[in-house]
Amino acid sequence: MDLNTPNIDIPFYQPAGDEIEVFEHAWKNRLPLLIKGPTGCGKTRFVAHMAARLGRPLYTVACHDDLTAADLVGRHLIGDGQTVWCDGPLTRAVREGGICYLDEVVEARKDTTVVLHPLADDRRLLPIDRTGELLEAPPGFMLVVSYNPGYQNLLKGMKPSTRQRFVSLRFDFPEAAREEAVLRGETGCDADLARRLVGIARALRALKDQDLEEAVSTRLLVYAATLVGAGMAPLPACRAAIVESLTDDAEVAEALMEVVAATF
Ligand code: ADP
Hints:
The structure is a single chain. The chain is α/β, with parallel strands linked by helices. Helix content is 43%, strand content 17%. It contains eleven helices and nine strands. It has a five-stranded parallel beta sheet with strand order 2-5-8-1-9. A two-stranded antiparallel sheet has the order 3-4. The longest helix has 15 residues, at 191-205. Adenosine-5'-diphosphate is lined by residues 12-14, 37, 39-45, 182, 186, 218-219, 222. The site of adenosine-5'-diphosphate has 16 residues, from helix 2, helix 7 and helix 9. Residues 32-166 form the ATPase dynein-related AAA domain. One of its GO terms (molecular function) is ATP binding.
């Protein structure tokens, strides 16, 4: 496939290195994939892009601390006096030979590892206790998980017995030219605006002494470019899309706005 030919059915993704190749090899060889990296750096978009490229259905689950194995596998639902089994997203992906993407997998309840482990190693099995089924994943199936190593406390980190079942990719914020290309590709903004916004992001990411929980993400830059593209002036657009999303502290916000003001 010609990488340079835009395809409207495939979500835009600007690669950083060999991640497309790694994903394709992992999928062809039936290996599960773990993607680690900060929030808003393109992990979800990458998986959507790859699923479309490979022509596989994609089931994405945003994991949270109440997410149980039953949420992934399925449950019996009662309706009209009848009990009906309803597949969860993981089971659907296995049945259809699709890709199941578990975003922020370390947030999920511990009991999910019981279903993920046999699927993530060479058995590729999904036992469904409640129906007595044992599904063998077809060749098209792939398990992809992600997490953000930045804001996990030690207790929540991924256990070695889980992470060593996966091929792993590290994602990070893109270098300047690539991040500018992302902004232009996503929003159609001009090169000058993309360069300025990426300049702001780089300056803010370098501010180590500001007590920010997370660095500014590419996602927030996309928001800023979108607001400017819609006609907002750059300063209020950056305040709304970038600065106020990064901090609740009014003084820190003003310090960040100084960085923005120095650019526009
Ligand atoms: P994550 O899953 O890492 O939190 P996302 O994949 O949702 O982040 O990315 C957030 C947004 O940033 C996307 O919706 C997209 O607009 C943009 N983005 C980030 N990186 C890229 C990239 N490499 N190519 C295209 N868009 C990107």
